[in-house]
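Bit of a strange request maybe. I'm writing a small parser for structure token strings and I need a real example to test against, not something I typed by hand. Could someone generate the tokens for this chain?
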Amino acid sequence: MEWLIPVLIVVGLVVIVGIYLWVTYNSLVTLKVRVDEAWSDITVQMKRRADLIPNLIETVKGYAAHEKTVFENVTKARAESLSAQGPAELAAAENHMQQALRSIFAVAEAYPQLQASQNYLQLQAELVDTEDKIQASRRFYNGGVRELNTKIKVFPNNLIARNLGFTERDFFEVSDSAAIAEPPRVQF
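Reply from user aminoacidic:
Good idea to test on real output. This should exercise your parser:
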């Protein structure tokens, strides 16, 4: 009978450790899926913006046919944005896209008839809306990354998280934060 108490203690400890591992693993999986979903939201919004840009370019081209380099830069930035893999590449592409959009809106400011065009106004509104959604998606992604990275780093999770295959994620950080602080603006 004396051997029963140590056996129950060992079984109890094994059960507690098992429950802890189960709960920790499930919470890490949940956070990982949330971060993946947030990254997907960013890529969806970037794709939406990339799809709007050719329409915007064609609308502006009709008024500003001689501004060829502006259109080439926007097209190049769009392609770079679509081919970016991971937060670091997408952040660099985001900087180029912001610069390109600023230049196309600067061209638009030089053509008052363009600013009055319904197509242009609608595309501009959709682009601003998309920029707002990109910014919100980026904040949601970074929040999820913060939670996941914290969960991986805290003790005693840091002892088992990497063994379970969980690694820290990179934040979506843009090197030129002033370039993306606000959606591109056009002044009438």
